[in-house]
Structure formats: C-alpha cells, structure tokens
Design brief:
Elements: H1 12-15, H2 17-20, E1 35-37, E2 49-57, E3 60-67, H3 75-84, E4 97-98, E5 101-102, H4 105-130, H5 135-144
Antiparallel strand pairs: 1-2, 2-3, 4-5
GO molecular function, one term: protein tyrosine phosphatase activity
Protein name: Tyrosine-protein phosphatase domain-containing protein
Domain Tyrosine-protein phosphatase: 1-98
C-alpha cells in the first residue's frame, strides 16, 4: 500500500531499471517534483538518483530531507547526499532489527561514527595550525573527552 496525496505527481525516476535496486521498498518511492537529485557521475546511469525527497519547513522551502535507510548499494549515494546538501543533522527513525534480522543500518552507524571522528580530527588539525594559544584550553577539553594524546 502506498500513501497517496492529492495531485498528479509522478515517480518515473524511481522506476528506471538502473534505479529500482536503490529503493529499499517497492511502495516507498520519491516523487519526481521534490526528489533530491545528486550530481550525475559521467558514465554511470542513475548516479543522480537516491530515494530521498525534500520537505518544506515552516517558512523554508526544501528545509529537510527524508530518505530511507541506505541499502548495501546506496551507502555512497547516502554520503554524497549528506555532503552535497550540506546536511548537519541526521535523525534516524528506524528499527535495527527488520523481519527478525539485524539490518544494514548498523553499518551506517559505524560509518557515521568513523566519519564524525575524521571530521573532528581534521578540525583539530586546522585549529592547531590557526591558533597555538588555543592549545592549552584544547588540551583540557581533549583530556576530558579522552582524545588520544597523539591527536592533541
């Protein structure tokens, strides 16, 4: 069963052969008029597709993005969306266990943690080079947060 909204909206992009495998569920697909479109990668048909739609916020057009949890072949598309759209917050509303088995979401959480650590370490490196006077305050923070000494 699909959720239908008033209007004559299409979902043709989701039905292209190269995109069908990128949909976790056959009945939860993005409408063409609000779908998030990725930058196309030359030579890769369907590389502009992710099962995601923009959602308006209060007085803000396209404020939010709703997407499914990535499947194995869409992890890269998920992170491209995060990067390309400048996503700062990810809210996950899903079960870790689906149909009696652990979902691939666990891998996403591990990936998210690794990327967050990499971003923090890059920020630390930049801060270190910008302001050496900041170092003593940062060292206090780092020891409190148990950051390995080699990164301080």
């Amino acid at each position: 069963m699909s959720i239908r909204v008033p209007g004559n909206y299409t979902w043709e992009s989701s039905q292209k052969p190269e995109n069908k495998a990128k949909n976790r569920y056959k009945n939860i697909i993005p409408y063409d008029h609000t779908r998030v479109t990725l930058a196309e990668v030359d030579g890769f048909p369907g590389s502009d597709y992710i099962n995601a739609n923009f959602i308006d916020g209060y007085n803000h057009h396209c404020k939010f993005i709703a997407t499914q949890g990535p499947v194995a072949n869409t992890f890269g598309d998920f992170w491209r969306t995060v990067w390309d759209q400048g996503v700062c917050v990810i809210v996950m509303v899903t079960n870790i266990v689906e149909g009696g088995r652990v979902s691939r979401i666990r891998e996403l959480l591990i990936s998210l943690r690794r990327k967050a650590v990499a971003i923090i370490l890059a920020a630390i490196s930049i801060l270190r080079s910008i302001n050496s006077g900041f170092k003593s305050e940062f060292e206090k923070w780092a020891s409190w947060r148990h950051v390995p000494h080699k990164f301080v």
